[in-house]
Every structure is written in structure tokens, then in C-alpha cells.
Amino acid sequence: xIKKSLGxxxxxxxxxxxxxxxxxxxxxxxxxxxxERQLAWHELEYYGFIHFTINTFTGKxxxxxxxxxxxxxPSELDVTQWVRVAKEAGMKGLILTCKHHDGFTLWPSxxxxxxxxxxxxxxGKGDIVGDLAAACKEAGLTFGVYLSPWDRNHAEYGRPxxxxxxxxxxxxxxxxxxxxxxxxxxxxNGGDGYYGGARETRKIDRSSxxxxxxxxxxxxxxxxxxxxxxxxxxxxxWVGNEKGFAGDPCWATYTPHGVEPGLAPAPxxxxxxxxxxxxxxxxxxxxxxxxxxxxxxWFYHEDQNEKVRTPENLLNLYYQSVGRGASLLLNxxxxxxxxxxxxxxxxxxxxxxxxxxxxxxxLAAKAAVTATNTRGKDPQFAAANLLDGNTNTYWATDDGMTxxxxxxxxxxxxxxxxxxxxxYIALGQRVREFSVDAWVDGAWxxxxxxxxxxxxxxxxxxxxxxxxxxxxxxxxxxxxTISTLELYAGPxx
Length: 493
Ligand code: FUL
Description:
The chain is an alpha/beta fold. It has helices spanning 2-22, 36-44, 55-58, 79-89, 128-139, 160-176, 212-222, 311-321, 342-359, and strands spanning 46-50, 93-99, 142-147, 182-184, 191-193, 200-202, 227-230, 236-238, 253-254, 284-285, 288-293, 327-331, 368-371, 395-396, 404-423, 431-440, 443-450, 457-476, 481-488.
């Protein structure tokens, strides 16, 4: 009997237990780590902002709130054109200014008369939020909403009743339009406005007026998967400028600081310039979103048609945002026809062509790779994971091994001018310093170096022709976990 059970079930069980005891554990997470919804957001990288309201018809950037509703009548509005353009441009989603500071709503809100429902557009039967949400869904793009906390139209702005109104509108947007991927809370707040005819200046206490904790809770309850943007998160942070660049470094971790000691940070009241670099070892996983317009203004103005960014300019923005571990939220404002203007479309397609020409062929895909250290010598953590095109597999070293190198033997002689690196960020942002060498004239030559990697880092280099490349992790807060190393040859270096 005993003999039988040893041979039949006990022995394999003992062997399995021994094997498990020897199995190499993944590294422990380090510092602040991303949530599932943040991880999903990192993958988007490039998506569009649509600024459209009565301003499109008045030429203003910030409507006062007293604009005549008769002005809103786009003659050829076609949200499927917006979606087509965004998709062909390579964007993964769109965020719409459902209500900007002037208070006009692009959906028939039941809480206000300052709304699309009282305009000549479709005889008051239009709902641009609904139309765009449906068009995005159909095309496989994500859809996000911008709801301005500041409202220059509303009579109660500055008083408690307005906060209830704001929350009611938030509930409308989060309940009636399917899955909302991002909710955008602007930090611009308080000042002069129409305010139901009062025409005065109203100041609010930015740290307490919106009671953000409870406002955010509405989003969590109604759209648990949605990312919330503001100067202080809670999911992603403003990069601190509207010029289109994240810093170098740009850490995904961040500790928002109040403008004065002892004053808690709040949207519109934070040392926002720190957002450009973030903080190594910051308290929260709060990666940066780079919001920038394709034109000088956020809204369409005819006299800016000659000032639309060129494809080369946009490519530069891409390197300065996505290439530094942030996301690129590029504003493409429709014109008074209700269409994205031909000039903007041309530049967007030009950028797409440059991105395709650069990132289509990974010249390291067929390489062989060796590492100075592999965690527990376990193939599960081998350096080959860098080349498999899978961001969920990674090269890791033994605990405490915070400097290490990998050598990538290319498939013959290759010429490239871009190095793309990714950390396996589910375990935190760990690398603090790295460099990249190429084998040139019989010796290693340094071709790039940096500090932060994070979700993605793209380094432009001089044009390099070589048979092997070396990645050196020169400092890390914990053993590095690197998921990707790719090499690309772009038309511009
Ligand atoms: C700013 C606003 O004041 C601008 O009008 C624009 O909406 C931009 C994205 O955010 O804070």
C-alpha cells in the first residue's frame, strides 16, 4: 500500500514541493506602482483632444458665458470625420470638451438651458457628446470627457448650489454615454464671467470648493475604469506646460506639493512646474499627460490656418512626450463647419507617415542577447525577453544587483538612429541611470544615456552602423526589470 502511494501520488508531490522551493520568485515591487487602469492608460500613448463650443463661432478662447445660442450652428458637422482622421493619424482615442469655461453644453443637459438643445443646430435635437461617443466606440477608439469645473455662465458659480450642478452634469456624462476612458478636470478656475447676468468677478477657494475627494468618488462609482486627469491626479498629472514637452527625466512617480508650506495641493493650486520632471521615488504613481494644440489656440481660428504645426514639429512633440514616458494629448479643433480643417489633416497624416517610416521595422528583432546577470539564472527572466515584442515579459537581475549590462548581437550589420527602451512598470519605476553603447571600430562607444526609462523611453542618436549594442544599467533603486529594447532607423535622427 505504502509503496504504491509513494510511486503513485506522494513521490511526484514531493518532487513538486522541492521544485517549488527552488522556483525563482519575481522581484518584489518597488515604491509606488500603477493600478490596472493606469497600466491600460500607458498603452494608449497618443490620443486627441477636441476643443469645440460657441468659441468656435466667436473667435474667443475663453467664452464669457453670455454668448447667444443662435451662434451655434455648424453647417457640415460630421463626428465620423473627426474619428476617421484621429484613427488614420494613429491616435487611440478622443477627449471632447463637453463643457468649456463658457458653460455651454454639447449635450442636451437637463440641468441647464445654456445648451445645444436651445440652438439652431439640428433644431435643438443634437447631441454631439452622444454622437462622438458612438462614433468612437464604432471605430475602436477610447472616448473621454472634459467637463470644465469653472462655469462663467452659471448664476450659482462660487456657491454650494453650483457644485451640486457640476456633479449632476458629471453624472449625466458618466451615465448616458457608455464607457468613459478619461475624465479631464481643468485647473483654470474662478474669475470674471456672466454668472447669470451678475457680470462680476468670483473667486473660489480652490482647495475646498469642489470637495474633490467626493467629486472623484462619483467617477470611481459610475466609471471604475476611467482615468482622472488634473494637476494632482488622482490617476495622471498635468505635465505643467501646454507647449508639448515632458522633461528629461520624466518620472512617472510624483508628490504634488502645495503652493505654500502647510497648504494641501489642489487642482489650480500646486507647484505645477514640478510636473514636468515628476520625482524619482515620488509618493504616487502619477504619470504625466502632455496636452498641446496643433494650432496656437485651443479653439479653431481661421487666422491661424497658416500656423498649424508641421509634421516635423509634431514628431518632435512625440519624442518629447511619448519618447519620455508620458502620453501625447494632441488638440485638433474642428472649424465652424464642424470639420477638422484640411491643413490639420495634412499635418496629422504627415506625422503618421514619419512615425510609420521610423517605427515599422525593429532592427533588433532577430538579435541574440546575453546578460551579465539573470535573476536566478532562470529563463523566465532572461534577457531574450527584451526582444520578444511582449511588454509583459522582462529581463530581471538578482535582488541587490542594481548594475548590469546586456549585449545585443545584431543580425549582421545594422544602421539605426533610435533606441527604444521600456521598463516592466507593474513592478515600479526602478532604473535611475542607464547608458547605451555601440561597437564601433573595435571598441564600445557611448551613443545615448539617461536617467528615467519608465513605460517608454525613445532616444534619438546619430546614425550608427554596427553589429552589436550594449545596454548598461548604471544605477537602480532595486534590481532592474526591463521589458523592451528595440532599434529603429528613422528618416530624421
Ligand atoms: C486650459 C484651459 O483654460 C484652456 O482653454 C484649454 O481648455 C486647456 C486644455 O486647458 O487650462
